[in-house]
Structure formats: C-alpha cells, structure tokens
Amino acid sequence: MIARRLHLVVIGAALVPVVALGARALTGGLGANPIEELEHTTGDWSLRFLLLTLAVTPARRLLGWRWIAPLRRTLGLVAFTYVTLHALTYVGLDQLFDAEALLEDLRKRRYVTAGFAGFLCLLPLAATSTARMMKRLGRRWVKLHRLAYVAAVCGVVHYLWLVKADLRAPLIYAAVLALLLGYRLWFRWAPAR
What we know:
81% helix, mainly alpha
C-alpha cells in the first residue's frame, strides 16, 4: 500500500513540469519561439528524469535506501515519456512530420542524430519494462536495460552538440552522468566494497 502511494506521488510530481508547460502554452507564456521552448523544456526534463533513474541504484547502495529501488522502473518510464514528448515536439511541431526534412536533419545535424540514437535505445527498455517481460528475458533483461546508460550518453552528447554558446547546463548533466558511470565502474571493479 505504501509502495503504491509512493509511485503515485512520484508520478504526480513528474506531471508537474508538463502541466506547467501546458499552462504556459495555453496562456501564451512560451516566449517568442514557443516550439523551441517546448523542445528545450521537454529535453531538459528528459535528461533530469533519465539521470534520476540511473541514480536510484547508487542511492540505494550508498545510502541504504532500499525503499527507492521499486521507483527505478517508474522513473524510467517517466523519462521515456518526456523523451517521447521531446521527440514528438521536434517531429510534429518543428518538422511537421516531413520525412524528407527529418532525414536531412539526421544526416546534417549531428545533435539530431545523437538524440535519435538515444531515443532508439530507450524504445526496447520501455517495451520490456513489464514484470512479465522481466521474467521472460531473465538475465538478458538486465543486460538490455544497460542501454539506459547509452541513452543517457546520447542525451548528454545531443545537448552538448546542440548548445552553441553557454555550455554550463550540458556540462553539469555530463558531470552527473560521469559520476554515475564512474560509480558503476567502481562498484563493478573495486576489489573490496
């Protein structure tokens, strides 16, 4: 019962940014370039939730927060939802579902290619996030879900290549990801933990 409530609290909190974004859109509060604002905001929240998902295991191990482990899947699905909103904003609102323009962007703009690669990494993770698929795939499920790290790297690279002037924000995300990857490597290879 408590776990279910905790999941509902996390989902409710995760909805706050998208509801606020929707309210801003309805009231004309997205600025001079509303599509760009939608893309950037959904992209920022995609990375935040993806990194938060990857931080669950270190938090559980280092801080002894066993209660947080079941939230990893919920946070991962929230991250996927924001990535999907980000991709749909780009594909639907920015490119108007023009396949030719999309392919041209994929070919010419490396940040689009990196973002698309990250999205493709997350698709099988979302598709196999059910308890039934976890059981069916067994150990292969764990290996497959390591793609979350690849998706996060793609997301950070996407952001770094997108930004032209002020690199502070993407570098902060890169530093957090480096810490999470470093912890994972340390935990795996350290002789005595």
